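Fig. S4 source data, part A: sequence.
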Amino acid sequence: MHVPSSFFVSFHLLLAAALVATAQNAPSQVRVGVILDLTSPVGHRRRTGIQMAVEDYYAAHPSSATKVVLHFRDSAGDVLRAASAAVDLIKNAQVQAIIGPPTSAEAEFVSHIGDRAHVPVLSYSATSPELSAAQTPFFVRTTANDSFQTLPAAAILGAFKWGAAVVLYEDSPYGSGILPALADAFQGVGAKIMDRASLPSDADDARIDAVLYHLMAMPTRVFVVHMLYPLAARVFRRAKKAGMMSDEYVWVATDGVGGFMDRLSPEDVDAMQGVVSLQPYVELTDDVKNFSARLRERSHLENPSDADVVDLTLMRLWSYDTAWAIASGVEAAGVPSPAFQTPPQGTALTDLDRLGVSATGATLLKAVLATTFDGISGKFKLVDGQLQLQAYEVVNIIGKGARTVGFWTPESGITQDLNPDSAKVLKQILWPGEPRSTPKGWTVSPNGRMLRVAVPVKNGFKQFVDITVNSTTGETKITGYCIDVFDEVMKNLPYPVSYRYVPNNDSFESYDNFVNLVRDEEVDMIVGDVTITASRMAEVDFTMPFTESGWSMVVTVQKDTSSTMWIFVQPLSTSLWLASLAFFIFTGFVVWMIEHRINPEFRGTPWQQLGLIFYFAFSTLVFSHKEKLESNLSRLVVIIWVFVVLILTSSYTASLTSMLTVQKLQPTVTNVRELQRRGHYIGYQEGSFIRSSLTKMGFEESKMRMYSSEDEYADALSRGSANGGVAAVFDEIPYLKLFLSQYCDGYMMVGPIYKTDGLAFVFPRDSPMTGDVSRGILTLAESEKMTKIEKAWFGEAGACRGPSSTAIGSSSNLSFQSFAGLFIITGVASSLMLLVYLATFAYRERDELRAAEPTAGSGSVSLRKLRAWMQHYDRKDLRSPTFKTWNDESLRNGNESANRAPSPRWIMGEGSQRNGATSPFSVSVRSEMNVASSVEETPASDALDNSSEQEEEGATMTSLEITQSPSFVQSSR
């Protein structure tokens, strides 16, 4: 059969069109390199898992516009081969991203290559903190940063209150990179890193044993191990053989151990009994189980010889999610075909120089960093180029495996489970050696010997430390206040401590050298009268002080012959004098205001009334006021004021008496500058730090003399600076008080008290016992036992307290602040009584006041009202009982006179002359009619009031009118 040629032409055209259409609809291929250790079975399984991740992604997203094509390279676990593989992938395969390599050392080199070529490098297994996106922006860590687990490791120490630990780490980028973050985390819980010991990954048993024996000699018993499981397993086997997996030891391992439990042999697990480890928490969901089963089945088909290989669950899950993230980021970025900008050929000297720069790398990196999804290992989210973990699991290696004892999350810290309301403690942990209680984390004596406690040999002040030797038996007996305090504290510690006292005969020369015995490890601690100073704290640690702090000087006293004529003014301060004067005047004014209208004794001329105000108030000082008070308001004011005056006068008398008696003894020297100016000799206690302090203050060493006992102090002070003694002795407050308690008369402590931190016990730097002993000192100080110890060695407090037993200065005068309460009481009471009186006056006299306002003169309304009020207030209150009784008597006397026979009234005038001149008394006779009419026309009360007002206004009377009785008139005639 003949087929037309036109048919073949049409068929080829249709086939070509179909091929073109298919090519246009095919997804764009994006090349991604993968660097693995394909020489190991684990590397084979990683390759299979990554392939499955890409296949699963495109099976879930069949319409993707891009497709990742994987290019695998073998690093064989070598850094250089990993770098060579990266160069080959970028230069020849022109990959646009790289997954791997497996170790931190390899990833560090490859990340720099990727950063130079702008090719993102995603590592699911490089955990070293030294790798950072800040240094290599194109490096992405899709696994946990080792620094993340420093916080849960520190939280474990904090939960059991362990204050110190030793870090044992692998000498590699993986091991050393965690140290800075670990130190910061420990500091956050109040713990210290006492020592750091490193081991190379290929260390032999001898090297491991040497490190372990060094750690065994330290008092710290908490060890934090950060190394990968091959080296860690060997270390724990050697530690068990050395006896370090027994009681008192604590081992905390990072996820280099806990995360690789599947790879440890039974022998390794047996050597790690009691170890507490960390591992990132991954929930075993159905997806995880399904993937693990599929991976195991496929690996068996592709690599039958690797069927029994144990693969770490976390790493295979993270590698799966990493490949998924690459595929998702490629799709989101829409990366086109690879495009590299190659450098000029003339400038390229090596393969690294000939690497091009990816034109799509930055876009792909941005897309990957923004990728988030729910992976099989959990939530996949990158922050600052690093995968964020939700929790760490705390496991305890027991029996044949590990048991979960708790969790750690950034939000809640340590909890028993992931429930936010769960208990904030770990479950029961089985520690090495299976002790019944939690190890305290340190040992008093690492080698089991008794602690050597050095005590100073003193020539004086033996109440603090006294060393006596029995001449018969040769037994040394050490007693004293410091010894009793230390013994009592050690007896109450929650653990037993064995120690013995070692006298040091050279301590009196210099306590600084004495303290250095602890620094040089010649003794384990020092008990005695050792003062805390800054220079000493740089070498050793001190406990809390068990005595009061500070140092000063003691001098002799002499009689004070000076006096002043104004000493009577000194008992009260200026403010109190002025306040007293003001309240004297104010009280007198209030009493006058209340009594003026109703009491004739408070009336008179203006000068008389002003004088009366001052006289009445100040007369209360000696309670000599005789004026009779008519108002209850003024009586209440005076009662309160007399009470205030009584307290003021009593206090004044007591203060003046104190000034006239206490000040009779004065120190011969009052300050340091006076000693330096006069060139006096001064003394100090032997071995004391005070010598250097005095030198810094400007004293010449030739003017300093050293003494060792209280008796020598007294002898030197009594002789004086001019007779081979001293003018002052400088020492710490406890010694000076002890001296003054034995020598009460003739000496006193003067001058400022220079601050120190008191006496304390000395321990080596970072000793774990320092905190426990300090807490014991505080507990003892709050109990009666400390008081009994002080009484036993120093006697009753204040048993010999004379004028010289304390620092004597001028008696302080009384200030206004001391009596402010009294002045407030009297001021409020007086003001209240005055307000009550004025309110009552305004209410009772309101009609008269309104009637008097129009006749108050010219001026504004307010001025006329004020003038009317003042004029009316100045008048007598005739309705008061005093003036009412007087008016009634006057009226009765007037009526009786009217009923009797008229009698003339004598007017005795001034200006009488002798010898026939006008008599001293001029007599005028008024008729009864005139008298009667006068009485009728003018009311007696008004007439009496008018005459009284004329007299009070000071009008001059030209005559004195005297009413005579009938008998007197007749006799005059």
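Fig. S4 source data, part B ends here. The longest helix spans residues 632-661.
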